[in-house]
Specification:
- By secondary structure, this protein is an alpha+beta fold.
- The chain has one domain (4-165): Multidrug-efflux Transporter 1 Regulator Bmrr, Chain A, CATH 3.20.80.
- It contains two helices and nine strands.
- It has helices at 42-59, 119-132, and strands spanning 4-11, 14-25, 28-38, 68-75, 78-86, 98-102, 105-113, 142-145, 158-165.
- Strands 1-2-7-9-8-4-5-3-6 form a nine-stranded antiparallel sheet.
- A hairpin with a 2-residue loop joins strand 1 and strand 2 (14-25).
- It is globular and about 45 Å long.
Length: 166
């Protein structure tokens, strides 16, 4: 069952529209790499971490879905996050790559279409949806990167934004 609503994220000189829905995500095995860095270093650190996770997934049977990032803490200009790759079956971790799970939750989902630099607008829209519907976030927000920005233009790049709820 899915509840949906049209969300509008407003910024000066632009409006992004997206559908917001409540979804249930199945629990899946994954490999992850965690990092901590200043906010301005997120793209570089995320890319390096995803490369490590991807290499580990490929060495252990391949990926079973698009990459994701979970934002564990965003305070005082510092980001603590983990990025990962879903895999078909559980694998062993290493000193640099953790084995874990992904999903197994209900979440509010919105699909962002556009550059990563504007993802904050979609997160703002999801936050508003939670407030307007008296829903409480129960875990860290995460993003699933549907399109590879090396193969799709920034304006057409799709990212699923999830906020776990009870």
């Amino acid at each position: 069952m899915s509840d949906s609503l049209l969300g509008l994220a407003m910024r000066p000189q632009s409006i992004m529209a997206f559908e917001v829905e409540i979804v249930s995500l199945p629990l899946r095995p994954c490999v992850t790499v965690s990092f901590r860095c200043p906010m301005e270093a997120i793209p570089k650190r995320m890319s390096m971490a995803l490369e490590k996770a991807h290499q580990h997934a490929m060495a252990n049977g391949g990926s079973a879905g698009p990459p994701f990032a979970r934002y564990l803490d965003l305070r005082d200009g510092v980001c603590v996050a983990e990025v990962g790759i879903p895999v078909e079956s559980p694998v062993m971790g290493t000193t640099e790559v953790d084995a874990g799970t992904f999903g197994g939750i209900r979440a509010v989902k919105a699909v962002h279409v556009g550059p990563y630099s504007r993802l904050g607008e979609t997160h703002d829209g999801v936050r508003s949806y939670l407030e307007e519907n008296n829903l409480r976030m129960t875990g860290p927000a995460f993003e699933v990167y549907i399109d590879d920005p090396n193969q799709v233009s920034q304006e057409q790049c799709r990212t699923e934004v999830y906020w776990p709820i009870g």
